[in-house]
Amino acid sequence: MVEDSLSSRRAQTMQNRSASVMSSDSDFSCFSCCCSPCIGLCYLLCLRTMKVSTRLKIVWIWMLSLSLFGGLYLRYNSYGTNIEHISSYDMMPVEKMSTFFCDGVTVESGLMNRFLTVYLLKDKPRINNTRTVYELTNVFALRVGMKKEFHFYLMANSSITLSFCTPQSVTLMVIKGTENYENYKKTMDVNQYALSYNTVFSKCNSKHFDISETDRYYFLIGQNWRSSLVELDIKLNKTTYQVHGRNTESQSTLWKVYLPLKFRSTETIVYQPAVTTYEELTVTTQCEPMNSIYIGVFLGGFLLLGFILSYIVKCWCKDPIPDPSPSPSFPESAYSDRMTMRPSTPNQQTHPTAPPLPEDESSVPWLPRPQQTPSCPPPSYESLFANGPDSEPPSYLSTTLERNRK
Questions:
Q1: d(CA 190, CA 192)
Q2: How many domains does the chain have?
């Protein structure tokens, strides 16, 4: 009987250990080959063992988190406030805007005395084939290790020519895109982020560049050998957007302009500084949110999705079946482990077990017995009224002692 119970406990222990090993292996493989969203979907699709109530809590935590953080990210990052540093020769479209999430767009100049010409177009702007010529002359001093920067928003089919007159050689670096420019300032890696890097020798030289892709271009002029005076002439042959004609809905020239947008239309906003000389300006564009769309998409939409997933979990998932065999206590399991480590042989002598207690405990000599007091019968009537019926009876203690003497 003892060997059968030990063998059954041993089998149960090995089964539990193998189950725990398989669970840990599956968890490790899940975490090693799946990303965190995939693991979350595994929880929702009943691939992990847990109660239905716990699974529903995870569903609603996911839905509320996506609703909150998704709305905040779209409101303040994708279609939030955008600050652009432009030159007075640039014509740019508003990038962070949407006719679905934005009720309107506000375009504001960094200086109140610098006006902006803002165009509201019915469709995406088209590039005009005719070019506009801009010329700029600038004289500046360059010290060793110093860089002078010029940036322009150039469209496709534009061209730029830079003419230098300097007694010392200077370097000219061209970087395409704001992201590459920011990365260059952090790492100073010319080979990875510079579109072109040239050395302009002394006396008068010129460099010509044809633009094939619309983007912002940065021109950095530096001095690495000796401080010198540089005379720079810049000639721009720029293509611009077609902002006059049937495609234009409105045009405003102010330092701050608000333009309403039609819902789910193809409208586009283009702005240009109303300045004839070269200056560097700061323009702020801000999308005015359409609150009803945000509430409907990020609150109502995720609530509906949460109810659908909750219904699926309720129908498809079930609570795990509990193990009917109770887990052994610590002393008993420790004793069973010690017994399993000691194999028994037929010739091995075992200690005899103690026999069970009999029903009559008086036959067991080693059990303690309570002390019995001698029985004493009650006193008789004559002993109580020995001096007559009218006499007072003696006390119970005195009568008992006298009776015991006899």
A1: 6
A2: 1
